[in-house]
Amino acid sequence: MLIILLLLLIMPFSVSAGPSSTNFELQNYSFGSGGTDTSFSSANYRLFGTIDYKSDSGLIYLLQSGVPAAPTLSNNDSRYYDKLHLTINYSISYGSIPSDILFAVAVSTDNFVADTKYVQADQTLSTNPVWQSYTTWGGATGLNILNLTKDTIYYAKVASKQGNFTQSPFGPTATLPTAEDNTLSFDLLTTTMNLGNLIPGSVITSPTEAEINITTNSNSGALVYIYGTNAGLKSINAGNYTISTVSTNEDLSGLSQGYGLRGTTTAQTSGSLVIEEPYNGSGNIVGPIDTQKRILFSTNDAAIDSGIGKFEILAKSSLLTPPASDYADTITIVAAGTF
């Protein structure tokens, strides 16, 4: 009897969906943003890579950093006329944002149709993007974008990256206008100060304080100057006799006679109003009121809202001072902003 044994060898097989070897198979693949040769080949297969572009910012990177949320823009309650304040908002939930995540800020006046510029390291705008860390861009405090045009609507958006070939698209846009104009308002709320009777040997303080009110959006704030007409209290009836003003900040208590001014209080809604030397003394220490313009108040090199400054006049006569009822001086107060 002839017995025929058939040995059926069953071998595994597979259908390759992509390039493969004995160890792996690429079932799906693509190439993006890298290299200049779009085909890679061997004796068994050839790969055709693709490079994708997006319309507004170049290549589409395959390993993208998170897209930042819209930044926060502010203009100090519509007071900034040539700058805007920007804070980067990053939506990925890190305990703290890693220092190797970098950001670029794009700014436009036409919502990125034909005008796109980028914030530079010096906070001005130019044509090339600058990548900096969250901390360098001011962190949670943010920074001012400088040298903008007044009464103009600005748009801003942010992109991020964390290493090479990881740039995200620019995120959603924030928008805000700059202020319409440079402003300075100044009021003198007191026009007459009466010292009353001067008692020889006594320092007399005006019972009424003079008050000024100042508001400005000037980047470098404003200065309030003061000067007098007579360089003292002058009497026509006493033959033009003058109780001379002090020459610097002096204490009237130690002088036989004299005349001067002292700042008393300041307040403001925002910003800072400062009494400047030599008018910031206490007690009977006063500064001069002569024909030279001197700074009485300053806004500390910054904008201010509703700054209020008060000052008083002090004078002292002696037994040798001719009696008269018309001792007087005319004081001029000037405010000037630095825009």
Q: How far apart are the termini?
A: 117 Å
- The value of Rg in angstroms is 37 Å
- Main beta-sheet strand count, sense and barrel state: 6 strands, antiparallel
Number of helices: 0
Measured by DSSP, the beta-strand proportion falls in: 25-35%
Oligomer category: single chain
The best one-word shape is rod-shaped
Structure description:
This protein has no helices and 26 strands. It is mainly beta and 339 residues long. The chain has 2 domains: 66-180, Immunoglobulin-like; 184-337, Immunoglobulin-like. A hairpin with a 5-residue loop joins strand 18 (232-235) and strand 19. The chain starts with 38 loop residues before the first strand and ends with a strand.
Keywords:
single chain, 339 residues, mainly beta, Immunoglobulin-like, six-stranded antiparallel beta sheet, rod-shaped, disordered N terminus
Q: Would you summarize the structure shown here?
A:
The protein has 339 residues and is mainly β.
